[in-house]
Amino acid sequence: MDYLKAFIVGGLICAIVQIFIDKTKLLPGRIMVGLVVLGVILGSFNLYEPVIDFAGAGASVPLIGFGNTLIKGVKEAVDEEGLLGLFTGGFKASAIGISAALILSYIGSFIFKPKMKK
User: Fold this and answer.
1) Which tens digit of pLDDT belongs to each residue from 33-48?
2) Cα–Cα distance between 76 and 53 in angstroms, integer?
3) pTM, whole model, 2 decimals?
4) Which domain holds residue 37?
5) Could you tell me if residue 17 is inside a domain?
6) Least CB-packed of 20, 32, 56, 102 within 10 Å?
7) Helix, strand, coil proportions of the chain in percent (round to 5)?
8) What is the rounded average pLDDT of the residues 61-82?
9) Which of residues 114 and 21 earns the better pLDDT score?
10) More confident site: 28 or 38
11) Residue 50 lies in a domain
12) Mean pLDDT confidence for 54-58
């Protein structure tokens, strides 16, 4: 049942984003930034945590989940370090995910031999 919930919520998020890409003139990069900002806003008011509790990776893997992770890290760091945590918390909270994405992308580039678009 956990897999079904993750699939439905993650699919719903992706479908909504695809509709935004298809029906608006916004560039995909701006939509992605909007998703991260939306995750930060929802996370700052503790509105996204129940969605993650319900759907697991279906809600935490999309970019909205990344924004939520950033704000959670900032909140924890501010509680521990004060104002300096405002600048360091997001980096500490998301460092593992960003590092994994970079390392796996680098490995993937050796396996699949990427080419520049012309």
Assistant:
1) 999 999 999 999 999 9
2) 19
3) 0.79
4) 2-112
5) yes
6) 102
7) 85, 0, 15
8) 92
9) 21
10) 38
11) yes
12) 92
**Contact by Cβ (8 Å): 36, 69:** no
Q: What is the pLDDT of residue 32?
A: 93
For 80, other C-beta atoms within 10 Å of its C-beta total: 11
* Residue given tokens 């995750």 in the structure block: 39
C-alpha 107/C-alpha 24 separation (Å) is 35
Query: How many domains, in total, are found in the chain?
Result: 1
Q: Tell me what the mean pLDDT of segment 37-65 comes to.
A: 92
| Residue 9 CB partners (closer than 8 Å, separation 6+) | 51, 54, 55, 58, 59
- Kindly state whether residue 117 falls inside one of the protein's structural domains: no
Burial 31-45 (b: 16+ CB within 10 A, else e): ebebbbeebbebbbe
Q: Is the pLDDT of residue 97 over 90?
A: no
Residue 6: closest CA among 43, 61, 45:
61
- By three-state DSSP, how is residue 21 classified? helix
Cα–Cα distance between 66 and 37 in angstroms, integer?
Answer: 9
The whole-angstrom separation of Cα 41 and Cα 49 is 12
